[in-house]
Automatic annotation (TrEMBL):
Pfam families attached to this UniProt entry: C1q
Subcellular location, principal: secreted
Protein name per the record: Uncharacterized protein LOC102801095
Keyword Coiled coil assigned: yes
Annotated localization: Secreted
Signal peptide: 1-25
Organism of origin: Saccoglossus kowalevskii
Keyword Zinc-finger: no
Keywords tagged on the record: Coiled coil, Secreted, Signal
InterPro entries: C1q_dom (IPR001073), Cerebellin_Synaptic_Org (IPR050822), Tumour_necrosis_fac-like_dom (IPR008983)
Length: 285
């Protein structure tokens, strides 16, 4: 482009200044020279116009390629979005599968426990088949829903403790349990000895204790931080057994558990013959 402009300028100079001079000369060679220059000027002009056309074409090609590039970028963006969407869908599916697996595990656990309970009822009580209930590690919301549905009108537990518990003057101990004959609804926690109400209603509770030689029995059935009913015996060498019972109307979230009097003079006795029991069932919701 630049080169052509220079040539064009040179021709203009020639035509405007050199040509008039040549015209006034009578020399025929000069006249021919001017004609040659004029021809060169015309061919340069054509070349220049051709180049202009080529540049225009190149411009069009460039614009088309630009468009194609933008289109590709756009498509890439859409593909990235699609990949992102599918990745998050995959994660959701994985989470759902995990939750459902936990739910299946839990239901299997419940089913196994039911089968064990059935075995226990049919064949009478056998020491060789302890009916230990394993609580599931953690309840998901879905599992809670399932449990709640199962719970409606169907809550009962019956647990036993197979070892003694000696009073401790430094703290009031909660009586914990290690075997569940029944734990319908799974609202009783053996490890803490706490029943957590998940279905509002009126419940029947009973507990039975055997005395420890030369110690008093002192057990209180607690609702939250408050004692509800108590059991007491005097210390004696002769072992005694006592049962206490009560009915309570509970709200969701109420905690019921048994507390041993915090003193070294108190204790309860238990062994594998299952003297110590704690039982409850929903009378009506
Ligand atoms: C007994 O259970 C109650 C209710 O959950 C709790 O507040 C208390 O700390 C427990 N006592 C002991 C000694 O763990």
């Amino acid at each position: 482009m630049y080169e052509n402009s220079v040539r064009l300028a040179a021709c203009v100079v020639l035509l405007c200044f050199v040509l008039p001079t040549a015209v006034y000369t009578t020399d025929g060679r000069l006249v021919r020279h001017v004609e040659d220059l004029s021809q060169e000027f015309n061919s340069l002009k054509i070349e220049y116009l051709n180049m202009l056309r080529k540049i225009e074409k190149l411009d069009v090609t460039l614009a088309t390629q630009d468009e194609a590039l933008q289109d590709t970028w756009f498509k890439m963006g859409r593909l990235e979005e699609k990949v992102d969407r599918q990745t998050s869908e995959l994660q959701e599916t994985k989470a759902t599968i995990k939750e459902q697996k936990a739910r299946i595990d839990y239901l299997e656990e419940v089913e196994n426990t039911r089968r064990l309970m059935h075995y226990g009822n049919g064949g009478g009580f056998t020491r060789s088949k302890p009916m230990r209930l394993h609580r599931p590690e953690k309840r998901t919301n879905v599992m809670r829903e399932v449990v709640k549905k199962q719970n409606t009108g169907n809550v009962a537990f019956s647990a036993t403790r197979t070892s003694p518990l000696l009073g401790d003057s430094s703290e009031a101990q909660n009586i914990t349990f290690d075997l569940a004959f029944v734990n319908e609804g799974d609202d009783f926690d053996l490890d803490t000895g706490i029943f957590t109400c998940e279905v509002e209603g009126t419940y029947y509770f009973s507990f039975t204790m055997r005395s420890y030689d030369a110690k008093h029995i002192g057990v209180i059935l607690m609702k939250g931080n408050e004692g509800v009913v108590s059991m007491a015996t005097d210390a004696d060498d002769r072992s005694v057994m006592q049962t206490q019972s009560v009915m309570l109307t509970l709200s969701v979230g109420d905690l019921i558990y048994l507390r041993l009097t915090p003193s070294e003079d108190f204790a309860i006795y238990g062994n594998s013959f299952n003297y110590i029991t704690f039982n409850s069932f929903l009378v009506f919701a």
